[in-house]
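Is pyridoxal-5'-phosphate placement plausible here? Inputs below.
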Amino acid sequence: MTEKFAVRPALSTTPAYIPGKPPAAVEGIESYKLSSNENHLPPLPGVVEAAARAAGTPSHYPDPAAVALTEQLANHLGVPAERILFSAGASEMLASLARITLEAGTEVVYPWPSFEMYPQVTALAGATQHAVALTADFRHDLDAMAAAITESTRLVLLCSPNNPTGSVIRRAEFDAFMARVPSRVLVVLDEAYWEFGTDPEAVDGLAAQRTHPNLVVVRTFSKAHGLAGLRIGFAVADPEIILELRKAVLPFSVTAMAQAAARESLSRVSEVEVRAKEIAGLRDELISGLREQGWQVPESHGNYVWLPLTAGAADFEAQALAAGVAVRNLKDGVRISVGPEAAMSRVLEVAGRFRAAVER
Ligand SMILES: Cc1ncc(COP(=O)(O)O)c(C=O)c1O
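Reply from A.M.:
I modeled the complex. Tokens:
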């Protein structure tokens, strides 16, 4: 008899990542993918060309230390280069952080709902998970998260702005939380949507690192820079943490194309920041439009909006798909990424019709 192949027991409780759906083609109208929090604008002029030039020598491995890019980012952020490490998207960094801290018998604390990769990478590592529910107003429940930390906790994940709800962690609540976290526990602040944030009280992970050496900041070029398809993100942390992370991030995972594109985009970062704030403007208009229709929509600081739906998320998703818009159904609600103005109008039409039908 052939035996079934053997895998680690941790896989039995590990969810596979479910990506955002593509939109369905609807005759006569343009379709929009608003299900993956992608930037609807193309990268800045010159970025694609820089990537294409770097693609000219595919027989060579990329610079594994991304020296030039690291130097450039260090200057931009005002941190020493030894505090920076690149990876294939923030995703690879999150997986690496789980890998250097977690194993069977250890514990992780993260908010929920939040980024769907947190349960995946931490379950795969074999850790016991404490997914702490957000507060009624969709924010991290930092009191409950601090209370969930035990002797076995090795990792805490925080997401600000939180995907999918858009809320940010404020400086004062962050400091109060950190005061309750033992210094042996690594705290990760996932700031994938940092550039879209418009709350002056939001914690800035880089500034917070001055007083919290166990804090790892994770950011990405996928969102505001619009380079999701090239896969490049990074961590900023104490050099000793970076040394350990270097053992977990796969060598050569950041391609030469990704490095070149990131360098070009970073060289014009003020334009990236302007565009991120324009996207934030579209986001706030969408929120106002939805609120005028009677929806309870939380303030968002990402490039997306959270529409809480106690029931009916699947119906909303289906109706949006029929109207040529793919949104993300996360069961307790739908997450709608910011897209071009025409897409936002389409979303408002769908949302208005949906509400009218429910209220009837
Ligand atoms: C909160 C959060 N963190 C990290 C990521 C991963 O980004 P990437 O791997 O594309 O850099 C995402 C992607 O959607 C995200 O929403």
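Short version: DSSP finds twelve helices and twelve strands in the chain.
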